[in-house]
Design brief:
Elements: E1 2-6, E2 16-19, E3 30-39, H1 41-47, E4 57-58, E5 62-70, E6 82-86, E7 96-99, E8 101-104, H2 111-115, H3 118-131, E9 138-142, H4 147-158, E10 162-166, H5 172-178, E11 180-183, H6 189-196, E12 203-206, H7 213-220, E13 226-228, H8 232-238, E14 241-242, H9 253-263, E15 270-275, H10 279-288, E16 294-298
Parallel strand pairs: 9-10, 9-12, 10-11, 12-13, 13-14, 15-16
Antiparallel strand pairs: 1-2, 1-4, 3-5, 3-7, 3-16, 5-6, 6-8
Helix pairs in contact: 3-4
Amino acid sequence: MKAVRFSHFGGPEVLEIVDLPEPHAGPGEIRITVRAAGINASDWKKRRGLMDQGLPQTMGYEAAGTVDEVGTGVTDTHVGDHVFGFNADGAAQAELAVLSAWAAIPPSLDFAGAAALPSAVETAARALDQLGVSSGDTVLINGASGVVGSAAVQLAVARCARVIGTGGPGAHDYLRTLGAEPVAYGGTMTAQVRSLAPGGVDRALDVAGSGILPELIELAGGADHVVTIADLAGAQRSGVQFSSGDSGRAIYALAHVAGLVESGSFLLPVGQTFPLAEVAEAHRIGEAGSMRGKLVLLVG
C-alpha cells in the first residue's frame, strides 16, 4: 500500500510516498480503507525530529474511511461502515490504516470533514474536562479561532458555559458564529475581558501558547483554574496544568461530537485538501500558519 514516510529529519522535502506492507486489525481494532487523513502541527514537529527519534517514520494519527477488516472482540462495527478515529501507530496517512478508537461518521459529514475532527476534538474535550468546565461557568479561551480553539469553544458552549475567546480582529465574526464573545490579543486583553466579566472568569484555557499565562491566572483567580495545551515551560514556571495525552485521552468525545455535528451545533471547517502525493505542500502551508481551518489529505 502507499503511505507517507520519511527516512531522515528535515523540511517538507524529506516526505516520501512509499510502498509498505498492509497492516491488519488486532483484537479490539478495525482497519479502514482510508479516504481522508488529518494533518496536525505535531506532524511537522515529528518530521523535524522534535518528537520520536527513531527512523524511518510514518505519518498521521487521524483518519476517516470505510471499514474493511474487523479485529476479534469488535461487535458494534462491521465491514462497510463509515468511521473516523485514531491510529495509535502514527501511520494514518496511507491507503490502509488500523484504528484503535473510532466513531461512526454522521450522515451530514463527508470523509474530509470527519478526518478533521479526532485530534482537535479529543484535545479540546480533554482540556475542558481537566478544567472541570460545566454549565454556568465563564470560560476564557486564548487562541479561540484556531482548529483546537474552535473545537474548545463549541464543546464549552455545548456544556452551557459562557465563552470569551481571544482572536485577531479578522476572526471576531467567526468566533461569534461559534458562540463566543470575542476579545483581541495584546496588551488590552485583560481590560477587554474585565469589561465583559468584571469579576474575572471561572476557568481559562490556553491554546495559543503566546506567553499569556500570568494574565490568565489573574483573570481566573489562580493557577489551578488554568490549563494550557501549548506552553509547557510557562506551565512549569507558573504551576498551571499542562494537558497532554499522557494523562489519559477523552476518546468519548468522538461519538459525542458526531452527535453535535448531526444536530447542527458543531462545525470544524476544512481549510484545504490535498491528494496524498502532495503531503509536502500541505506541510509547507500548515507551517506557514496562514490557513484557517483544518488541512486534510485525500486518499484514493
